[in-house]
Amino acid sequence: MDISFSPEEEAFRAEVQAFIAEAKTKLPKTDVGAPEAATRSKEDYLAWHKLLYEKGWVAPLWPKEYGGPGWSVTQRYIFGEETAKAETPVTLPFGLSMCGPVIFTFGNDEQKKKFLPRILSGEDWWCQGYSEPSSGSDLASLRTKAVREGDYYIVNGQKTWTTLAQYADWIFCLVRTNTDVKQQEGISFLLIDMKSPGITVKPIIVLDGAHEVNEVFFDNVKVPVANRVGEENKGWTYAKFLLVHERSGIARVAGSKRAVERLKEIARAELDDGKPLIETDSFAHKVAELEIELSALEYTELRTLAAESKGQMAGPESSILKIRGTEIQQRITELTEEAVGYYALPNDRRKGSNEYPVGPDYAVGAAGRYFNMRKASIYGGSNEIQRNIIAKAVLGL
Amino acid sequence: MDFSFTEEQTLLRNSVEKYLAANYKYEDWRKFTRSEAGRDPKHWSQFAELGLLAAPLPEAHGGLGGDAVSSMIIMQEFGRALVVEPYVPTVVIGGGLIAYGGSDAQKEEWLAKIAGGETIMAFAFAEPQGRYNLADLTTTAKKQGSVFVLSGHKAVVIAAPWADQLIVTARTSGGRRDEKGVSVFLVDKKSKGVSCRDFPTMDGTQASEITFENVEVPSDRLIGELDNGLPLVERVVDEAIAATCAEATGAMKVLVDATVEYSKQRKQFGVPIGKFQALQHHMVDMFVNSEQATSITLMVTLKLGESEVARKMAASAAKVQIGNSGRFVGQGAIQIHGGMGMTDELNVGHYFKRLTMIDTLYGSIDHHLKRYAALDADKAA
After folding, report:
1. pLDDT at residue A331 above 80?
2. Domain B122-227 has CATH 2.40.110.10
3. What homologous superfamily is domain B231-380 in, according to CATH?
4. pTM (2 d.p.)
5. B369 to chain A: nearest residue by CA?
6. What is residue A314's DSSP assignment?
7. Residue A246, Cα to own-chain centre: how many angstroms?
8. A357-380 pLDDT, tens per residue?
9. In chain B, positions 172-231, which contact chain A (CB-CB < 8 Å)?
10. Which residue among A134, A274, A345 sits closest to B156, beta carbon to beta carbon?
């Protein structure tokens, strides 16, 4: 039983740290107190993506033959940890972690040749066409239809909660190609050009005023059959495969650790009855509880990591990581909002980022992030669904 | 033991409910809170017409002689409709300070104005370094002849952009956090030396960051006793807490009802999601929380007239309960509404944001747990 990393792994960690330090000198300045991925501009995302691409590190999950760096599970973990600690921007998961792996696993050679290099380079920005107004948790009930007409599918329907579709060049969609069979057996996986005639993107503004998600409407959109990945009506299999891949990093331990450090900095600066908030028992204990829960989560993740590196596939245990990871993320934003007192109230976002904040810098966006983070227990398979998965697949209930 | 409302009180609730249902629908709220002014001034006039602004004020000065129960009823309905108009700062705090501690001349001048909707007051008490301690003040007022010279910085003054008068707590003697040496002034916002930086708040109202630079305040605008303003301030803040708790219970009721209704309509996996036991239990817990909040609001409202210790403990108890219940109900409503709950378009998120801001107002859960425990310990000693 050994919880330390090997010398080679530590050397790799140093290499990652050096890369990050240099990359930061080349990155555009980001907003004060806005580490949330979705508040970054398209340019910010792509700047970081390009630096990683030049280094050969943009696709940690991909096999070497398709352009991945050939990292072990542990190296991927170290890379994730160091970038989160350094609060670098993140790469978008939709092309690199979701659609890309589906293409190189189930796609044909033409699709691999056409799409994979452009995902790697960042030339194509991808979004995920899964959820629909009537199909959230019950994704298999989706209704967007694709009817075959010669060499094309004609697609009609609507996707929703489509993250950053406003920037997207391509969308990968689950569509219904057979209505006469069991729901899961009539779904196909289509790659659709966002510039296709008939596609409309409508913003959905969320609680804190951010434009992160959208509705995407399909009105008789012609999609070449060549853009279907794998077999017709086998799309649900590919979708499930993708969900397994989506799970890496789901616990966000390193990011949460950094967020707790930021919370403590704030609690040192804030005064309560003349002394720092962090020195009041009630607040100090709440922070301690949070850190302790985070430690438990970290070691849970290390257990799954160790198992994975021995070749055991990640299974329903990742639901534990999702539940606890998101609950902790939410708790951090909640405590941070509490820490800043009255300066949680100003709606600084509406004023634009070139005006100085009403209160201290660290209070900017604290309430907004608390509100925004309520989505974490809802997206990626709600925490209720995750509990159902554990109940069924782990506890056998 | 009788918790029923009188006929008068029922009529009061009905009149508020009726007005808001017709004029303050959610779509209306969205429109005017996003306008430049952030509100529609006609509502304040209408509130005056309906006697709402006069309700808890003494009859001798144009009030209706009601009590804290009137404020509770009004604020519950206001909470249901997300009303942004500053009833609490103007009527409860401004009206309360003057009615309990004002000179005869001040009562003459101001109470009728408040009842008639002719003035809007904002309460400038919090400071950047003070957190929730009402006595932690760096704003000072120094007597110079017939005026006090006021200098300092007040944080996040709710409704100040709409106000013509500011109620300002300032230190007239003593050290920064001394309980003695606090005084209260009614300051004309247009006075020379008052600078306001207006901004929207996260829950759809407006506030200001205010600096006072050698503002000359006439001596007759000191409310209550010089250097001994803190007990008066604490009393009206406890009343403001009771009224704000009532507002929160109105918001919670809307969220519980909306969530239950949504769960009956929203179908996934072939059934309304309200059929799933996990969600049912969650909604039950939300309902129980909402009921506890309503009960404790009743308690604090009825105890406002008791001894100082009893009043303070009741106010802190209510604030803690409302903070916890509001958080639980708000978060649960978003969760059960799923993605829809995250949208700006649906009303649910706005009630959640309002409940979050209420939790901060007049002291967080931790602040009031501390005050309650300290008073409790004193009692036992």
Report:
1. yes
2. yes
3. Butyryl-CoA Dehydrogenase, subunit A, domain 3 (1.20.140.10)
4. 0.96
5. A282
6. P
7. 8
8. 899 999 999 999 999 999 999 998
9. 176-177, 197, 199-203, 207, 209
10. A345
